Amino acid sequence: MTSAADLPAAESNFPLDLDAKHQVSLNPLQTATGVYVTVHGHFYQPPRENPYLDAIERQPSAAPAHDWNERIHHECYRPNAFARVLNDRGEVLGIVNNYEYFSFNFGSTLLSWLERYDLEVYQRIIEADRNSCARLNGHGNAIAQVYNHIILPLANERDKYTQIRWGIEDFRSRFGRDPEGMWLAETAVDYPTLEALVAEGIRFIILAPSQAQRCRTIPTDEQPVTQWHEVGGSQIDPTRPYRCFLEGVRSEERGVRGSEINNGHPDSRLPTPDSRPYIDIFFYDGPISRDMGFSDALSNSHHFIGRMGLAIRGDRRSAQLISVATDGETFGHHKGGTEKTFAYAFTEEFPRRGWTVTNYAHYLSLDPPTWEVELKPVTAWSCSHGVDRWQDDCGCGGGGEWHQKWRRPLRNALDWLRDRLIDVYETAAKSLFCDPWLVRDEYIQVIRDRSVANVQRFLSRHQSHPLTDSERVDALRLLEMQRHALLMYTSCGWFFEEISRPEGTQILRYAARALELAEDVAGVQLEKEFINRLSLAPSNVEFFGHGAEVYRQLVLTAQVNFQQIAAQYAITSLFRKQEIGSNGQRSTVNSQLDRFSTTHCPLPTPHIYCYTVNQLDYQWQRVGTLTLAVGQLELMSEITWEKEELVFAVLHLSGWDFHCCIQPFTGWRSYNQMKEQVFESLQQASAAHAIQKMIQIFGDRSFNLQDLIAEERHRIVQMLSQESLTRLDLLYTQVYRDNYGVLMAYHRDYLPVPQELQVAAEIALGSRCSDLVRSLCEEIGDRDTWEHLAELEAVATEANLLRCQLKLPEVKQSLEQLMLRSLWQLLHGDAAVEEETQKIERSIDIGCQLNLGLSLARVQEVYCRCLHGQIIPQCLQILDGDVESRNGDRPMWDLTQLRYLLRLGQKLSVDVGGWLDRIG
User: What is the DSSP string of 407-449?
Assistant: First the structure.
């Protein structure tokens, strides 16, 4: 942790080729002078969504988080959006958006997830690019990325261009500008890839020093011949940019494509003596970048600054760049707390040394390349064998004795499938679209916005004739087939040592979805041959044996169809009806729901993942312990617009036992007859008789709790368990009360406490805590609030006295939300300052007493915004004697109220001591 007290005196021990007076007169943001620093973070997570649900399912290995995206988000992405600068007492001096100082790329699929999951952080990332544009002469920190992280040198030409175009369009739609640079997956590059980048208007890329072969100063009229220097052993100087000339791209072709991508503005990189096209390249400093990931270079800002300073070259050039790059997840996920190191370095350490924090595009505008470079033929930053890590058993990424002989057969199988899907696409799409491959390149516009209006506009723009409803479905199926054919090449599938890992399984799921869509549209059956080819990919896991078995065990079992979605709706409806009345509004269970009743669309139209459910009819009845529901649904995929009308009957016997049957809707007459027969069978109050009738009508195929999508299954299991858990809570509470004196005697005499009594105490006190916090979170009066807080304090005291280890994750989360809500009301409402600050302070104390490990992060962020935007300005008003002034809509607090607010800051570990001293 870095503190202000450790701040060294400003100094610069690295002389440059400018006298001090001249240096002071130059603005390093306008003129290349001095030392520049660029820290690039490659922020990326592989797409993890179930192809049928468009959502990430729970990943137990990421516990306690729901999935790895969520876990890494809370360890890395969010901390860097709200990075703390601390004083020597560990108090917050300020909160820094590190993305305003990083050079960064975010994978498009990761940004899509962030936009859904944490809009605040997503907006901080977009805002950071906008602010860096304002600071750095219009050059933002963000650069684009190849869309879903495929290895471009291994892609066919069409996929190469689509990946680049999707990455550019996704970037433009988010950041509101064209990207100047692009991050290549694994920095994998060859010259055809460079040609594609140049053709699409990309100005620069970032590579590892090991990817350069030789370099020289660019010949000029004054020096027409310069000497090449071999740098193939990572010896290239990373403190300057380089220009890579491309012989293979015709300048006139490049000019047309460049003007298209830049909205009609011709590419400005043409004025070279021989008009050769080129792309500029930055090579990051390899040793420092490795140290950031594998040493203590990021343990505090002094170590980091010291390590960066060693890279400055004393050759007296006017300007030079210290450039480092690594996986962005290093900054908090792999190395916890490093966001603080960067926040302090960016805002305090670098400026004190006179170093300018910049990004590659800005530096390029100040100091264009005077050197050119030639690259090795095919390279990447994480494989010493070119790009064999993604196609061969090269040893990279291996684990002990495990081989990677599966890599080549897996790529061969996917290449075979890709080529078959091209045939399907071209044959089917030419009857629907004017230009099938242009529509694929622009399909990113639909991926970014799947609203009905946007999809209709998109199809209308590309259709070869007015499409019928069924043709629209086929059009979207074809485009989704191609999207999944691209997703199945996500590089992570080959990166590690085993095909059956989640990454390999995920790309096979994309392949399975593409196969299914091809059969739906064209009736082409490719799966059998694909599985045969996968059987040539040997697994290291004896249980699987080869890739075909991985496909059968882990991929086919994850497929979802309309009937499963209908079964999920049917079973969960038995629980929703207990919360929602017949008028569609949430209510308690009432007597009307205990009678035989028929309601049409009693529940709000829900979404189940990426499916819209339109309930056309619903009827249910309860007889003893049996509950039966019958209904008719129209399901529509929000991705492909496919629709199905289905009818269901679901019988809940008791506990975990469900019997659900689904069949297509064939007409109201047959549906009403079915409904009448099934409900008549229930009148005998015999589960066996009802199930027999359902089998007679629907057939043997049925669904139970195990067939539900895991997330919903877990939710229902918890609901079904709640009644039993409530009874157990009451039982343990009674045991605790009856034996309280005995339990105290054990603790008083330091005797080993019987496990049964200790567990009873922990469960009883934990249950009481949960009930009290639940009551606190409800809308209640102030008297109740103080009573509940006092009771919580008493429970905490009792738990500590009895040495109870309470596990209360839901209490922790609820208290954090309660404090956040109270602070928001305090700062933006009419709440009484003294009472609300005391509530928050007491909540913090209770969290400490209960050992909850409360996170004050969100509360600190809200408080710090208010501190600088409202509290301090009003302190200044009062100190200046301007007590009548009101600044906009800000509340006007008096001196006593401001003291309470500042003391709250102290409680939140925010540095406000100076202001408390000033106002007395």
Answer: HHHHHHHHHHHHHHHHHHHHHHHTTTBSSHHHHHHTTHHHHH-
Give residue 827's pLDDT band: very low, low, confident or very high (50, 70, 90): confident
Q: What are the tens digits of pLDDT across the range 370-428?
A: 999 999 999 999 999 999 999 999 999 876 789 999 999 999 999 999 999 999 999 99
Among residues 778, 840, 771, the alpha carbon closest in space to that of 808 is found at 771
Rounded distance between C-alpha atoms, residue 461 and residue 2, angstroms: 56
Residue 395 DSSP symbol: S
Which residue type is seen at 469?
A: D
Give the integer Cα–Cα distance in Å for 684 and 903.
69
Selection from 655, 635, 637 nearest residue 645 by Cα: 635
| Reported pTM | 0.89
For residue 626, name the pLDDT band (cuts at 50, 70, 90).
very high
* DSSP helix/strand/coil, 599: strand
Q: Reduce the DSSP state of residue 919 to 3 states and report it.
A: helix
First-last CA distance in the chain:
31
Is omega for the bond preceding 754 within 30 degrees of 0, making it cis? no
Q: Which residues contact 486 (CB under 8 A, 6 or more apart)?
A: 147, 148, 150, 159, 162, 163
Whether residue 329 has pLDDT greater than 60: yes
Q: Which two tokens stand for residue 852?
A: 């909850």
Residue at 314: amino acid letter: G
pLDDT for position 270: 39
**CB-CB contact of 337 with 380 (8 Å):** no
Helix (H, G, I), strand (E, B) or coil at 18: coil
| Per-residue pLDDT at 781 | 56
- Spatial distance between the Cα atoms of 629 and 426, rounded to a whole number of angstroms: 46
3-state DSSP call for residue 849?
helix
pLDDT tens for each residue of 68-87: 999 999 999 999 999 999 99
In sequence order, the 6+-apart residues with CB closer than 8 A to the CB of 402 are: 497, 498, 540
To the nearest whole percent, how much of the chain has pLDDT over 70? Answer: 89
pLDDT at position 780 is 56
Q: Report yes or no: 87 and 3 within 8 Å, Cβ to Cβ.
A: yes
The burial of 175, by beta-carbon neighbours within 10 Å (0-12 exposed, 13-18 middle, 19 or more buried), is given as buried
Residue 258 confidence (pLDDT) above 50? no
Contacts of 706 (CB under 8 A, 6+ apart): 713
Three-state DSSP state, 59: coil
pLDDT tens digits, 13-68: 333 444 444 444 579 999 999 999 999 999 999 999 999 999 999 999 999 999 99
Q: Given a cut of 50, is residue 580 above it in pLDDT?
A: no
* Cα distance between residue 108 and residue 173, in whole Å: 11
The whole-angstrom separation of Cα 668 and Cα 615 is 14
CA distance 850 to 376: 60
Assess contact for 662 and 635: CB atoms under 8 A. no
For 577-709, where are the alpha helices, taking DSSP H only?
668-682, 687-698
What is the distance between the alpha carbons of residues 634 and 647, in angstroms, rounded to a whole number?
A: 9
Spatial neighbors of 852 by CB under 8 A, at least 6 apart, are 808, 811, 812, 815
